[in-house]
Amino acid sequence: MMGAVRIATTSLTRAARPVTALAVGALVLTGCGMSGSTAAVVDGEVITVKQLQAATADFNQLPVTPVAPTEVLTLLIYRDAAAEAYAGAGNPPISESQVITQLRGAGIEEPSQDLVDLYRTIVHLQGAGDVPSTEGVEIEVNPRFGTWDAEARQVMAESPSWITEVSAEVQN
């Protein structure tokens, strides 16, 4: 009877190994525990995927060249640093009503708060004269959207190694 208990325990342990490996693998693939609803974390402040998607969709309603989520995420990451750099350059504050007026002039009658914040960040970056440094700022990006490149000062989209580029010429 003792042998049956030992065999059952060993079988359960063997059965649990693949499940444990899958669970650990899932954590690694999701960005070391970053929630799937989180696009990035900047000094502890969470930028959600929902915010990113809404800001991207809203921005792409403007009469400009459409942008990718990684570009919008870069702007959202710079929000506070851009405001500081803009003020540091001696520029007057930009009110929410000024931003809304500019967006209405571009054809967006009821701009969302996400779009107002994004547009204000763009104005701050333009007025600052240079892209502010993020040195000392803790930035973590969900791998779904890429990685933060401190030298390039932007989110860099990464293609998984199993995706290969297709040449421009297609031969039949």
Summarize the topology.
Elements: H1 2-29, E1 38-42, E2 45-48, H2 49-59, H3 69-77, H4 79-88, H5 96-105, H6 113-128, E3 139-141, E4 147-149, E5 154-156
Antiparallel strand pairs: 1-2, 1-3, 4-5
Helix pairs in contact: 2-3, 2-6, 4-6, 5-6
Largest sheet: 3 strands, antiparallel
How large is the share of residues in beta strands?
Answer: 5-15%
Order of helices and strands: HEEHHHHHEEE
What is the average of the pLDDT values?
A: 80
Overall morphology = globular
Describe, in plain words, how this protein is organized in 3D.
By secondary structure, the protein is mainly α. It folds into two domains: 1-30; 38-156, no CATH class. 49% of the residues lie in helices and 10% in strands. The chain is built from six helices and five strands; from the N terminus they run αββαααααβββ. The strands form two sheets. A three-stranded antiparallel β-sheet has the order 2-1-3. A two-stranded antiparallel ribbon has the order 4-5. Helix 2 crosses helix 3 (69-77), helix 2 (49-59) crosses helix 6 (113-128) and helix 5 packs across helix 6. The model is unreliable at 4-32 (pLDDT under 50).
